[in-house]
Design brief:
Structural class: mainly alpha
Order of helices and strands: HHHHHEEHH
Shape: rod-shaped
Distance between the termini: 132 Å
Protein name: Pleckstrin homology domain-containing family A member 6
Strand content: under 5%
Number of strands: 2
Strand order of the largest sheet: 1-2
Radius of gyration: 55 Å
Largest sheet: 2 strands, antiparallel
Helix content: 40-55%
Mean pLDDT: 67
Length: 230
């Protein structure tokens, strides 16, 4: 049933109740009106607009006509529900289990820094690693000794430098450290590849020639003669 039909039904009920009231208000001893005489007044019925219709009466009528006595949703509740769905429907059905769960692991295909292997290193690998450490220490010592000059007999004094030269020196040290790290990583990768590949059989090493005792004694004699001259 549409709203217009419901409004028409309410109007008919109101008009019927008005007729009953008029009949009850009529005097019983009043003379019967002459049908031939025209009345001096005219009854004007005022029709209510849609906005003036009592919504409570309309809701009560709809609830009475609802079959099975089911719960009827009022227009106000229906409007609120529709507005709620139209504004932000996605925020009312949100699954936060995915947001609260632990994130997926990110696969890193390549690392810039090689991690230490779990297996112990062989003696050759340990020797190569020690050589790298000694080489790095030597380069760092050489770069640090560039700022020191000897004065007198073994006295070392720092040379004062301006800010630009210090900045250049720091940049040079940073470049050297980066180059050393890159070289160490490259050598480590080459060494790991060499260890992984099978090496060909090596020939027995030839015995070292015996040392000449005269050659070892000659520098000692030179040192003693030099000491005598002094």
């Amino acid at each position: 049933m549409s709203v217009e039909e419901q409004i028409d039904r309410m109007r008919r009920r109101q008009s019927g109740s008005m007729k009953d009231k008029r009949r009850s208000l009529q005097l019983p001893a009043s003379p019967a009106p002459d049908p031939s005489a025209r009345p001096a007044y005219k009854v004007v019925r005022r029709h209510r607009s849609i906005h003036e219709v009592d919504i409570s009466n309309l809701e009560a009528a709809l609830r009475a006509e609802e079959p099975g006595g089911q719960a009827y949703e009022t227009p106000r509740e229906e409007i609120a529900r529709l507005r709620k769905m139209e504004l932000e429907p996605q925020h009312y059905d949100v699954d936060i289990s995915k947001e609260l769960s632990t994130p997926d692991k990110v696969l890193i295909p390549e690392r810039y820094i090689d991690l230490e292997p779990d297996t112990p290193l062989s003696p050759e690998e340990l020797q190569e690693k020690q050589k790298k450490v000694e080489r790095i220490k030597t380069l760092i010592a050489k770069s640090s000794m560039q700022n020191v000059v000897p004065i007198g007999e073994g006295d070392l004094v720092d040379v004062p430098q301006d800010s630009e030269s210090q900045l250049q020196e720091q940049e040079k040290r940073i470049e050297i450290s980066c180059a050393l790290a890159t070289e160490a990583s490259r050598r480590g990768r080459m060494l790991s590849v060499q260890c992984a590949t099978p090496s060909p059989p090596t020939s027995p090493a030839s015995p070292a020639p015996p040392a000449n005792p005269l050659s070892s004694e000659s520098p000692r004699g030179a040192d003693s003669s030099h000491a005598m001259r002094v």
